[in-house]
Amino acid sequence: MVHIMLARISRDKIVLQEFMTHWDVRAALEEVNKILLTKKMKPQYYFEGTPVMGQGGFSVIIKLDKPLTDMDARTIARLLMGRGVKIIYEDEDLAG
Q: What angle do CA 28, 33, 36 make, to 5 degrees?
């Protein structure tokens, strides 16, 4: 069974969903944090879920203290896609 990891990106939050291991979550957060922390953002992280198959995996909601720029959103998307994460833009204007 192939499991699809998702990232829902909007200007004020990023939601990582369907991650089956804590290693996958950690790798994705490292990629996201490369951008957020260099932009002096103060993200808040909310962790949910379980690695049990059929239960939706791990999810992380990252609430942002300031809005993502188009460039930052696309950069985060490219970094996550490189790790096999499917991107969904919640704000249409971010998709480019």
A: 135
